[in-house]
Amino acid sequence: MAFQKLDFIELSKEEMKKRSGDFLEMMKSRRSVRNFSDKPVPRQIIDNIINTAATAPSGANKQPWKFVVVEDPKIKKQIRIAAEKEEKEFYGHRATKEWLEDLNRFGTDWQKPFLEAAPYLIVVFKQVTDTSRKEARKNYHVSESVGIAVGFLLAAIHNAGLVSLTHTPSPMKFLQEILKRPDNERTYLLIPVGYPTKDAEVPIISKKSFDDISTFV
Ligand SMILES: Cc1cc2nc3c(=O)[nH]c(=O)nc-3n(C[C@H](O)[C@H](O)[C@H](O)COP(=O)(O)O)c2cc1C
């Protein structure tokens, strides 16, 4: 492995405080949105967002992710039909009473019109093996790596002035089939990206307090 000098510029304490505070304020206004407009989004923005996700760290730098971007209305419709079939089962039979109670305050149900309305659906796959060599090799810390990349992706979407939803129709195998993904890939998340509708609403929620989520030792 060859090495190069780290590209690092030390910032002043003031600059660090300002930057971290500004980033916090920006991220505080991110929300999961379920009402998408069909207003088009320039492709360049989607490319930038995915390239941002691709800067994420990953176990042994295996980068075990694939971002399949769906823009074809026919495929979006197919995905909506298949997702709603699973969600109908989930809300009608599969979900436990507690799970439905937890979901109740978000006003969600089996209907997913945003899967057709949003200009882009980014379907994230995790790659359980690396098939770039002759003999397939296991990838390491796959879920952790893809989770971090998706965190970068969601932050980049918000930073670009767009909205997203982290969606997990359960089970999600139908996405592997519709999108004809290879055997070494598993569906990880489905993320519609676009603009909110003019009258979009989000549930009033709160985040845990700093004291709840952190402790210094
Ligand atoms: C792993 C994961 C799965 C989720 N699955 C769904 C989903 O299938 N449908 C949905 O409407 N929201 C889903 N959400 C969104 C959460 O409900 C939302 O993030 C949470 O209520 C907090 O709201 P916020 O994102 O606006 O802060 C999911 C979020 C995560 C992180």
Shape: globular
Hetero groups: flavin mononucleotide
Radius of gyration: 19 Å
Structural class: alpha+beta
Order of helices and strands: HHEHHHEEEHEHEH
First-residue to last-residue Cα separation:
36 Å
Low-confidence stretches: none
- What's the tally of helices? 8
Biggest β-sheet strands, sense, barrel: 4 strands, antiparallel
The fraction of residues assigned to DSSP E strands is 5-15%
Nearest-integer average pLDDT: 96
* Order of neighbouring strands in the sheet with most strands: 1-2-6-5
Q: List how many beta strands DSSP finds.
A: 6
The helicity comes to 40-55%
Explain what this protein looks like in three dimensions.
With 217 residues, the protein is an alpha+beta fold. The chain has helices at 13-28, 43-53, 73-94, 97-104, 114-117, 142-159, 173-178, 210-213; strands at residues 65-70, 120-127, 129-130, 137-138, 163-164, 185-194. The strands form two sheets. Strands 1-2-6-5 form a four-stranded antiparallel β-sheet. The protein has a two-stranded antiparallel sheet with strand order 3-4. Strand 3 (129-130) and strand 4 form a beta hairpin. Helix 2 packs antiparallel against helix 6 (142-159). The longest helix is centred in the middle third of the chain and has 22 residues, at 73-94. The protein is globular, with a radius of gyration of 19 Å. Bound molecules: flavin mononucleotide. Flavin mononucleotide binds next to loops.
Blueprint of the fold:
Blueprint lengths: L12 H16 L14 H11 L11 E6 L2 H22 L2 H8 L9 H4 L2 E8 L1 E2 L6 E2 L3 H18 L3 E2 L8 H6 L6 E10 L15 H4 L4
Antiparallel strand pairs: 1-2, 2-6, 3-4, 5-6
Helix pairs in contact: 2-6
Bound molecules: flavin mononucleotide.
Flavin mononucleotide binds next to loops.
